[in-house]
Amino acid sequence: MLKLAILFAVIAGLFGFTRVSSGAAGIAKICFFIFPILFVIFLIVAISAGSLVL
Known about the structure:
mainly alpha, 2 helices
């Protein structure tokens, strides 16, 4: 278990010191804005579909 944790720390460190981390941060920012919008849209659709059934 400790070996796995050390391996994960090394891989995370390598990604942290390269441009991969900045790319992942950019994707995370995009997802941060897209997913709540999709959630609200699907919530409205589900509520309206539920009211049609009742």
